[in-house]
Amino acid sequence: MTDTTTEMDGNVAELRNTVRDPKGQGDPKSYRISKDGETTRHEDAAWADKDLKMYTRDVHVHYGDNHAIKGVSVDVRPNEVLALMGPSGCGKSTFLRCLNRMNDPVPNARIDGTIALEGENIYDKDYDVVMVRLRIGMVAQAPNPFPKSIYENIAFGPRLHGLTDGKEELDEVVENSLRRAGLWEEVKDQLHQPGTNLSGGQQQRLCIARAIANEPEVILMDEPCSSLDPVSTNTIEELIMELKKSFTVVIVTHDMQQAERVSDRVAYFHLGDLVEVGPTNAVIRDAQDQRTKEYVSGHIG
Ligand SMILES: Nc1ncnc2c1ncn2[C@@H]1O[C@H](COP(=O)(O)OP(=O)(O)OP(=O)(O)O)[C@@H](O)[C@H]1O
Ligand SMILES: [Mg+2]
């Protein structure tokens, strides 16, 4: 197979064209990724490991000349909470957004490397980006409910994606999602009021309920508690602990205590590099790398 794509020109759409499905060329889970015109083949057995929720290898992100992520490789295990930590500007949000292709529309963003969900390359040209976002949901840093009713905020996704059959089923999904997000009791009598009328903490739970309603497998959260008071933060943290029974969660947090409370593992980033990854206690209490040590002891950040 010849690869017609040479240098990527900074347009993320190009990325999809650089990923080749080697149909008829042996292992269907082994893809060819073009990088700077060279074609390489994945030989890593973990690539096709369905027991891994997500697999990322040698991920690079450039925003124009800014090399924001420099060859990050980290696995995400099923039903874990993986916390991404590190000083401001180190690339946590950038990496998180790569996990469900939210960087695709960013002008000048270029993504290289491999990101797979249960052995499937989510950047494959044949992989529908809508499906990526259905399977990998996202909760943003600031609560961002749609300018619609509470009910419609939740119902929108399942209706759009045809996940429910009829109003009764949709009602059920709305109720269940709100229950799981710990919001039902507070809003059950005002389902048709605007979601934007809720408090910040309630809006964030509404956004989590909205993400859950699509039945994703992975939920990405970018500092979901940064604008919340301690009570709302506590509610969300309890919710994350509950969610990991059914979902896999990748969360960005600056808060060491929060990471210790909710996460199983920490991936520590510094200036676009993944410095170390390991069990939360080990990384926070017994970091191996000097940069991590300085961050956790409050010297960087
Ligand atoms: N949309 C964008 N366009 C251009 N550059 C960007 C964009 N988003 C991020 N960057 C750059 O990429 C680098 C990493 O930014 P990113 O937002 O991922 O960091 P972060 O670790 O999430 O920081 P913070 O803790 O402040 O949220 C920074 O140098 C930033 O300026
Ligand atoms: Mg960020």
TrEMBL record:
What's one Pfam family the UniProt record gives for this protein? ABC_tran
Please provide one cellular component term from the Gene Ontology annotations of this protein.
membrane
Q: Which residues form the ABC transporter domain?
A: 54-296
CDD domains, per database record: ABC_PstB_phosphate_transporter (cd03260)
Q: Which UniProt keywords apply?
A: ATP-binding, Nucleotide-binding, Phosphate transport, Transport
Alphabetically, the GO molecular function entries are: ATP binding; ATP hydrolysis activity; phosphate transmembrane transporter activity
Matching entries from Gene3D superfamilies are given as: P-loop containing nucleotide triphosphate hydrolases
**Biased segments, Basic and acidic residues type:** 17-40
Which GO terms of type biological process are on file? Answer: phosphate ion transmembrane transport
**Chain positions covered by the region annotation Disordered:** 1-40
| Xref: NCBIfam families | 3a0107s01c2 (TIGR00972)
Query: What name is this protein filed under?
Result: Phosphate ABC transporter ATP-binding protein
Organism annotation: Roseivivax halodurans JCM 10272
